[in-house]
Specification:
The protein is of the alpha+beta class and 742 residues long. The protein folds into three domains: 3-319, alpha-galactosidase from lactobacil brevis (Beta-galactosidase, Chain A, domain 5), CATH 2.70.98.60; 324-523, Aldolase class I (TIM Barrel); 639-741, Immunoglobulin-like (Sandwich), CATH 2.60.40.1180. It has twelve helices and 39 strands. Strands 6, 7, 8, 9, 11, 12, 14, 15, 19 and 20 form a ten-stranded antiparallel sheet that branches. It has a nine-stranded parallel sheet with strand order 29-28-27-26-23-22-21-31-30. α6 packs parallel to α7 and α9 runs parallel beside α10 (590-597). The protein is globular and about 85 Å long. Bound molecules: (2R,3S,4R,5S)-2-(hydroxymethyl)piperidine-3,4,5-triol. (2R,3S,4R,5S)-2-(hydroxymethyl)piperidine-3,4,5-triol binds at residues 337, 367-368, 412, 479, 481, 527, 529-530, 546, 549.
């Protein structure tokens, strides 16, 4: 039983192995939040003393005592236009002019299993089958608007999922201008907020700042979850570090506009409200109609940021990603993009395939440029038939020849987009989003198809399904390369135009659901100009996402480490590319590029013909080494190391669940003159076991080469004493150590 109801006290308590979450059906049916934190089966009502707070009004029926105000009591789901002046979860207007809602408890229900959502990805019970759902129904008397608060409890994951199902139970039409997934009131504590911001080719950089008075917003209104602000935030105590301290993560399972707001109020209480971005949102609910919000994943630990990350990693792998590929070994691939960009023909691709095969690569991915007259990026998106000048025997002929070389075949598509210069656009100019009477903004020479229209979503599904039915394609890279602007759908009635951005995402999810169900054996990799849509919503369909268009391994250290706070390495698309790097111009050792790409799905993005004989030998070694560690990376526990030494190096570790094996990696980013010893303490090992440093790979230079690592050490020694590494020298050297118990 992970959900308890104490009738007399009106308490509902959600219990996971290490956390507890509690709410109270309070006076007059207000649903109050009493606790979220370490597991503890107390009645937490004692924490929330009623007190008279000047200028914080009281509900009519409770006004005599003046002690109870919605403005000061922690709430489960805040209303609006009442006495709670803090962030609302719902902003609504009813046809009779009523603004906002005053939500009161009606009933609740406890069910077995996780809760699904209409048209939106949602977490499932997973292998252990352990999940329970609490549904609490609230109602606003004035409008009849009902809100069913849904809580999924995953006891062994220490995760609670939340969403709201809003139903118009009244007689008038209601317009929702805001419909948040959840609100979390944290009335006590001193908080830092960590968010993951960035830009194209520099995504998910963590920034930790103290929460201060007022409101802070972390949002994307770009139509996609975005490179700029990931829909994931962590709240942690000022004292919390990687290995200890309280922290709580909020991850929105959604790929469109999103908004997480934090308000530190007059009483020192912190409210976080998270859900769909509201700038252009307006959803019309006719009487009887309902609306599901996206799911929010909540996780708490008192064991620091590393433990919180691992909780999210396990949950995403075990309870969110539906692809059968999630737990499977992924093929080592070679992608044609940085090898040839748009300029290639069949002969070049076959040459890539032949040499890739010799090096141990298992899958050749044909990136952009294979269709229509796509010689430049200003045309042909939408014309998904092979360019016969580049591929005279069509896709079928090419795939046959690639498979004859002994490789699997992967294909790039960007099916949500259309070029103005394309047959598709000439045939259906109204399929692109644009405001009548206004020239649309153009991004990377392309426009966005209106996936809110079922006939366009169907076309998209049929187009991709057709490619997959007609050709033995093993892998799809699903790209998306521009933000959404000019919100206007040629088919939505005026009063529903504010639904477009969300309907687009629902259309996208419906296509992805159909495709992944029909083609479960196809490995899908998500992409949006690199990691612009690296979110839990996409990960429900795609087990991996191209992490960034930036393949410079040193830039990738920051990007991948930032990503690792919420998302597992099994989802991180990472490749070895040429040096100097195409995005930054920086030169790095070949082995360092591989060591960094091995913290993800691992592959190559270069022309093997340009490699020296020694580098070709090195590729074979890298691939064979990766095969020995890939299970660890994909399914092991991820530890970030050396937080104090960030200026000098980045280091991390993957540890198998049984703690028998571990891969340690360190990249030196800032060499010093007369350097201090390079020392790092390992984590996650069994202190009692003895670990052999079974394989060590250095990349770049060693200063003298005569400093030796010990051969066998106890887990205790490695974690408490640490390791002092031989002196690394030069530009961006690295070391990888594979440890195995004796
Ligand atoms: C952006 C992707 O992130 C790249 O890897 C590549 O596929 C290009 N698009 C192709 O246009």
């Amino acid at each position: 039983m992970s959900i308890l109801f104490q009738r007399e006290q009106g308490l509902l308590t959600l219990l996971t192995d290490h956390t507890a979450y509690q709410m109270q059906i309070g006076p007059e049916g207000y649903l109050l939040h009493t606790y979220y934190g370490r597991a503890c089966a107390e009645d937490f009502r004692y924490l929330h003393l009623e007190r008279d707070c000047g200028f914080s009004p009281n509900p009519y029926a409770l006004s005599a005592s003046r002690g109870f105000s919605l403005d000061t009591m922690p709430q489960e789901y805040s209303g609006s236009n009442g006495a709670d002046f803090r962030l609302p979860c719902i902003l609504s207007e009813s046809d009779d002019g009523v603004l906002g809602v005053d939500l009161r408890y009606v009933r609740h229900e406890i069910r077995k299993g996780a809760f699904p959502l209409k048209g939106l990805p949602a977490a499932f019970a997973g292998e252990d089958g352990e999940a329970e759902t609490l549904s609490v129904l609230l109602r606003d008397a004035a409008t009849g608007l009902e809100t069913e608060l849904l809580y999924g409890v995953f006891p062994h994951r220490d995760v609670i999922t939340r969403a709201a199902r809003i139903r118009n139970g009244g007689e008038k039409t209601v317009r929702l201008r805001k419909a948040a997934s959840a609100c979390l009131d944290l009335p006590f504590g001193t908080w830092d907020c960590i968010d993951f911001h960035g830009r194209h080719a520099m995504e998910r950089l963590p920034e930790r700042v103290p929460v201060s008075n007022g409101i802070r917003t972390i949002a994307s209104e770009r139509g996609y979850s975005s490179h700029q602000h990931n829909p994931f935030v962590i709240l942690c105590d000022h004292e919390t570090n990687e290995d200890q301290g309280e922290c709580c993560g909020l991850m929105l399972c959604y790929s469109g506009n999103h908004r997480t707001e934090l308000e530190l109020d007059q009483t020192g209480s912190l409210r976080i409200v998270s859900g769909i971005g509201e700038r252009f949102f307006c959803w019309t609910l006719e009487p009887g109609a309902s609306f599901d919000t996206p799911q929010l994943l909540l996780s708490f630990t008192s064991d620091g940021l590393g433990a919180l990350s691992r909780q999210f990693h396990r949950f995403i792998r075990g309870n969110l990603c539906r692809s059968p590929w999630t737990g499977r070994k992924r093929p080592v691939l070679l992608n044609s993009w940085e090898a040839a960009y748009l300029t290639f023909d069949e002969a070049l691709l076959l040459r890539l395939a032949k040499s890739a095969k010799q090096l141990g690569v298992e899958l050749l991915v044909l990136d952009d440029g294979w269709f229509g007259d796509r010689d430049e990026d200003n045309r042909a998106l939408g014309d998904w038939t092979p360019n016969l000048r580049k591929l005279p025997d069509g896709l079928g002929g090419l795939i046959r020849k690639i498979k004859d070389e002994g490789l699997k075949f992967g294909l790039w598509i960007e099916p949500e987009m259309v070029s103005e210069n394309s047959d598709l656009y000439r045939a259906h100019p109204d399929w692109a989003l644009r405001v009548p009477g206004r020239q649309p903004a153009i991004g990377r020479n392309q426009m966005v198809l209106d996936l809110s229209r079922p006939e366009i979503a169907d076309w998209l599904y049929e187009t991709v399904a057709g490619l997959l039915r007609e050709n033995p394609i093993d892998y799809i890279k699903w790209d998306m390369n521009r933000a959404m602007t000019d919100l206007y759908s040629a088919s939505l009635p005026a009063e529903h135009q504010g639904e477009l951005a969300h309907r687009y995402i629902l259309g996208l999810y419906s296509v992805l659901a159909r495709l992944t169900e029909e083609f479960p054996e196809v490995l899908f990799e998500g992409c949006a100009g690199g990691g612009g849509r690296f979110d839990a919503g996409m990960l429900a369909f795609h087990p991996q996402v191209w992490c960034s268009d930036n393949t410079d391994p040193i830039a990738r250290l920051r990007i991948q480490e930032g990503t690792s706070y919420g998302y597992p390495a099994s989802a991180v698309g990472a490749h070895v590319s040429a040096s100097p790097n195409h995005q930054t111009g920086r030169s790095t050792p070949f082995g360092t590029r591989a060591a960094v790409a091995m913290a993800g799905t691992f592959g190559y993005e270069l022309d093997p013909a340009k490699l020296s004989e020694e580098e070709r030998r090195e590729v074979r070694r890298q691939i064979s080494f990766f095969h020995r560690v890939e299970d660890l990376v994909r399914e092991g526990d991820h530890y970030r190391l050396g937080a104090m030494e960030k200026e000098r190096f980045t280091a991390w570790q993957f540890v198998s669940e049984d703690r028998e094996k571990s891969l340690f990696t360190l990249v030196l980013t800032e060499p010093e003159g007369n350097p201090r010893p390079l020392h790092v303490r390992l984590k996650g090992l069994d202190p009692e076991k003895r670990y052999r440093l079974a394989e060590t790979e250095y990349a770049g230079c060693l200063y003298r080469g005569d400093e030796k690592l010990p051969e066998v050490l106890s887990g205790a020694a490695l974690m408490y004493g640490g390791l002092t590494l031989p002196r690394l020298y030069g530009d961006y050297p690295s070391v990888q150590i594979l440890l195995k118990t004796e």
